[in-house]
Amino acid sequence: MAYPPHWRRIAGDPGTVSAALVGTDDNIVGYLNATPRQANETLSNWATFRPNHNAHEGDHHVHTLAATRTVPFRSGHASCVIDTYRTIRTAYREIACLVVRDRNATVIVAASTTAAWPDHYRQLERAVQAFRT
């Protein structure tokens, strides 16, 4: 997973890769993560699965801004959603894609605080576009 040079790798669940830009207050300002498919997410249900997943993890005010389904992505296909949500600490905007190649499926998430989104969204989009399963 590609990530900006001033970001740092952070610990995550087994089998995942994560990187973050951490602010001076120790809040995560930007976040990138790649995780193998873990549940019943599919290319066809991704636009509802991802926002529901966020809500089940405790995020509030989850709103889908845009979604695309089963588009070509490198040597496979992807379904992506752009959404916003609030955690206990702050509000975030994310690009989350389910990338499927052959029988492998990976979720890639690129997020930033909504306040920092204008400064980081280009880097986040590039990281998603550069992702290889």
Structure description:
The chain is α+β, with helices and mostly antiparallel strands and 133 residues long. The protein has a domain at 30-117: 3-Layer(aba) Sandwich (Protein Transport Mog1p, Chain A). The chain is built from 2 helices and 7 strands; from the N terminus they run E-E-E-H-E-E-E-E-H.
**CATH superfamily descriptor of the domain at 30-117:** Mog1/PsbP, alpha/beta/alpha sandwich
Please give the CATH architecture of the domain at 30-117: 3-Layer(aba) Sandwich
Mean pLDDT: 92
Give the termini separation: 9 Å
The CATH class of the domain at 30-117, by name, is Alpha Beta
Number of helices: 2
- Give unreliable regions as ranges: none
Secondary structural class: alpha+beta
Helix content: 10-25%
**Roughly how many Å is the radius of gyration?**
14 Å
Question: What is the 3D form?
Answer: globular
Give, in spatial order, the strands making up the sheet with the most strands.
1-2-3-7-6-5-4
Number of strands: 7
* CATH third-level topology of the domain at 30-117: Protein Transport Mog1p, Chain A
Q: What share of residues are in beta strands?
A: over 45%
Order of helices and strands: EEEHEEEEH
